[in-house]
Design a protein that fits this description.
This protein is of the alpha/beta class. The protein is about 60% helix and about 10% strand.
């Protein structure tokens, strides 16, 4: 009981530490697992582990094959959740560079790492290519924490982000196929029968995955499943599909759940986001338990297998040869600069899916007596820990050295995508400013995108925006919604993240009635709220510019506009072509001849 409770408590502590220090969760999880597992044998009185998942094959938390069974079921749930995130439209729209990175780049890593493992460690070709298939995967859970505090151009962040998201299920699928080919070959010695058996696994796994996805889709669509049972029925369906597929074709269960997730994730299901949230929460708990168990299950002798110079050589080949070769081959004629390609080459941490599947397959192949299978788990763990540690400690420094680190975050995020927000965003974008609109109204987002604006459908009350590494170059925050509470919440929550250069909101109707309107940094002149701006844009959807000759002329124009009910001053463009936000009549920046006052509404002579 103490050990079971301890695993859960330690796992959640590791997740909190990862959140608090903005590091990938897999790092503290594996370190804790090693400390209570193999490393603990060095300081316990009787030389046993503090946590022993399996002891002598009969005793421990999971004696016999029970650890393998638990890991199999847990990985099936994690892979299903990964499959749900793979959207066909996203794959087609991410751009050729990312598409090449997850295809051409993955192939180079697969072939190169397989050959290197075979030559350096003298492993069989089967084990070598299983290892190389496992280290294809870089996941969003390891990329995001590393990039979150590094201000980068959107293009660089986008490549790394989407590579991690898309390659997770693809890498898992390749690993599953290689593993199944090994299992089949052991029984049939790679004869014609082996290929037939392999084809059987592919056909049954794929067909059961597709059939189950459609069955679940129609059950949800026609309201056969009550809402309060939706998440638990989806969970039980995943486990049922995994076991059922395995019954028809041994080892086809993982393939079936990956296919099921991919198919279901590309269907139009309103409840999909809710299912994903539940699966993400469950995956966090499973991952927390899983990696402490798996790390604890490693023995000192397994770790000593890697205590040799060949390990460093293999790691160096993966990091310094194969990763750059994959990136540079995939980004030919991409528009990315040399320094950007170098940075992307440097950041390639392996993640949770790689380590989890490696442990599962390592366990299974060791139980089957496959020569060299004992290397799979420690080798993959070495690559995972090595890449995460390397990137977590050096990514920021390398960004500065390579010149991709943005010294100034000039991007602007606008909360709200109404008519006047879209008009303002269009003007700023035409003046070479990156602008991102955020709104929970899908109609507003679609209209913004039709204007060529960057827009994200999102809720300010969720943490999705904070997790989005593509927003690292944002320095200004403008809250322009019709809800005073939403605007105030956005300012309170996001100022430190997106508003380092300034965070502003619209004045509320209640504040307009009060006397003191200068105490808070509010947008534009303090006599115009959301309703006034909406009415002005409805009647005069234009942005005008007036040249300013002096500070006195500026004040005169502001007063004239302030008295004019059909115009609102927005920005001031100085003679350096920089746009400044106007937050009151008493803006203090220097006014010189050649400055331009920008306002929305009726043209004033």
């Amino acid at each position: 009981m103490l050990e079971l409770a301890g695993i859960i408590v330690l796992g959640i502590i590791a997740q909190w530490v990862a959140w608090r220090f903005k590091i990938p969760a897999i790092l503290p999880l594996i370190i804790i697992g090693l400390l209570v597992g193999p490393i603990s044998t060095l300081y316990t009185v009787d030389g046993t582990k503090l946590l022993e998942p399996v002891w002598n094959g009969k005793e421990g938390l999971f004696p016999g094959e029970r650890l393998f069974n638990f890991v199999s079921l847990a990985i099936s749930i994690i892979l299903f959740e990964g499959g749900l995130t793979l959207k066909k439209d996203e794959v087609l729209n991410v751009g050729t560079s990312i598409l090449k990175l997850i295809t051409v780049g993955s192939f180079i890593t697969f072939i190169g790492a397989g050959i290197a493992a075979h030559l350096i460690f003298n492993l069989s070709w089967q084990i070598s290519f299983l290892f190389s298939a496992l280290i294809i995967v870089t996941g969003p859970t390891v990329i995001a924490p590393i990039l979150r505090n590094i201000p980068l151009k959107k293009d660089v962040s986008a490549v790394l982000k989407w590579e991690g998201i898309l390659i997770d299920p693809i890498g898992a699928l390749v690993s599953v196929l290689v593993f199944e080919f090994i299992i089949v070959g052991e029984g049939y010695e790679y004869t014609k029968e082996a290929l037939i058996e392999f084809g059987k696994i592919i056909i049954i796994g794929t067909s059961i995955g597709f059939t189950s996805a459609y069955a679940l889709f129609y059950a949800i669509k026609f309201k056969i499943i009550p809402h309060y049972l939706l998440n638990v029925i989806v969970l039980s369906s995943v486990l049922a599909v995994f076991v059922l597929s395995d019954l028809f074709a041994h080892e086809s269960g993982l393939l079936a759940v990956v296919i099921m997730g991919m198919v279901l994730g590309n269907m139009k299901i309103n409840e999909l986001k809710e299912i994903l949230y539940f699966k993400e929460s469950l995956s966090i708990l499973l991952i927390s338990i899983l990696f402490i168990l798996l790390a604890a299950n490693i023995n000192i002798k397994d770790m000593l297998l890697l205590y040799r110079w060949e390990t460093a050589l293999l790691f160096a080949i993966i990091i310094f040869i194969l990763r750059p070769l994959s990136v540079f081959s995939s980004t030919i004629n991409s528009g990315l600069k040399l320094n950007e390609k170098l940075f992307i080459s440097w950041v390639g941490p392996r993640g949770i899916v790689a380590a989890g599947i490696a442990s599962l397959f390592g366990l299974k192949l060791s139980m089957e007596g496959e020569p060299g299978a004992e290397y799979i788990t420690p080798l993959v763990f070495m690559v995972v820990l090595g890449t995460v540690l390397l990137n977590a400690t050096t990514a920021r420094l390398f960004a500065k050295i390579s010149g991709v680190f943005l010294k100034s975050s000039d991007g602007i995020i606008i909360i709200g995508a109404s008519n006047f927000a879209r008009l303002i965003a269009s003007y700023l974008q035409k003046n070479n400013r990156r602008v991102v609109l955020i709104d929970s109204n899908k109609n507003h987002i679609n209209k913004a995108k039709s204007l060529g604006l960057e827009a994200i459908e999102g809720n300010v009350y969720s943490d999705d925006l904070i997790e989005n590494v593509e927003l690292n170059d944002i320095g200004f925050l403008l809250a322009l919604t019709g809800s005073a509470s939403v605007n105030e919440f956005a300012i309170e929550k996001f100022t430190k993240i997106f508003g380092e250069k300034g965070a502003y909101r619209l004045i509320s109707s209640d504040e307009m009635k009060g006397e003191n309107t200068e105490s808070v940094q509010k947008l534009f002149i303090h006599s115009d709220d959301y309703i006034n701006l909406s009415e002005i844009v409805r009647d005069f959807p234009l942005i005008n510019e007036i040249a300013i000759n002096s500070y006195e002329h500026y004040i005169t124009l502001l007063k004239e506009i302030d008295e004019e009910p059909q115009a609102v001053p927005l920005f001031l463009k100085d003679n350096k072509d920089e746009i400044h936000i106007i937050s009151s009549l008493k803006d203090s920046f220097k006014i010189e001849k050649g400055n331009v006052l920008i306002y929305i509404g009726k043209r004033i002579n």
